[in-house]
Amino acid sequence: MRFSLNGRFASALPGETLAQALLRHGPRPLARSIRYHRPRGPFCGIGQCTGCLMTVNGLPNVRACQTVPQEGDTVRDQNAWPTVQHDALAILDRLFPAHVDTLHGFRSPAFLTPVYQRVVRRLAGYGEIPSAKVPPSLFPPGSDGRRMCSWSVGVGPAAASRTLSRGPYLPRRCSWSTGGGTARHSPVTSPGT
């Protein structure tokens, strides 16, 4: 499989994830930390961390350790400029070796506080809002893409009640293999469960 990585062609073996393909060609950071722009690589390999977030086909925050590239995919680094290997904002790590105190620091002179806040907000985020139309394959079944899809996180009584109140299709996400949540420890009744 051939795909584009930051404008250059890269290849992946069949069934190989993006992270595996990129690391097979040699060590390289896959992402930068959000605050200090320190280099990050895949940490967990199961999609539970933010060590390998990339933009794939215009969709930000795709986990490279869980994504198998398709022929012709366009993959870009994110949270780094110009590239993850040579990030200009890595200078923040040297300017603030201990930590950046965004709560008490950046307060004087007072007239510059709004400017400081805008800069900190800009630096404190992963990815960008996609400029291209999101592909229909990412919408839940039966959705036309015009309504917001909400998620129920967890599978306890509260999540189950919320799921049933929102209609026939509301995806649930939980890392446990079985449901229950607080109901495992104390019997709680919830409408519709």
From TrEMBL:
<dbReference type="InterPro" id="IPR042204">
    <property type="entry name" value="2Fe-2S-bd_N"/>
</dbReference>
<dbReference type="GO" id="GO:0016491">
    <property type="term" value="F:oxidoreductase activity"/>
</dbReference>
<protein>
    <submittedName>
        <fullName>FAD-dependent pyridine nucleotide-disulfide oxidoreductase</fullName>
    </submittedName>
</protein>
<dbReference type="InterPro" id="IPR006058">
    <property type="entry name" value="2Fe2S_fd_BS"/>
</dbReference>
<keyword id="KW-0560">Oxidoreductase</keyword>
<dbReference type="InterPro" id="IPR001041">
    <property type="entry name" value="2Fe-2S_ferredoxin-type"/>
</dbReference>
<dbReference type="GO" id="GO:0051537">
    <property type="term" value="F:2 iron, 2 sulfur cluster binding"/>
</dbReference>
<dbReference type="Pfam" id="PF13510">
    <property type="entry name" value="Fer2_4"/>
</dbReference>
<dbReference type="InterPro" id="IPR036010">
    <property type="entry name" value="2Fe-2S_ferredoxin-like_sf"/>
</dbReference>
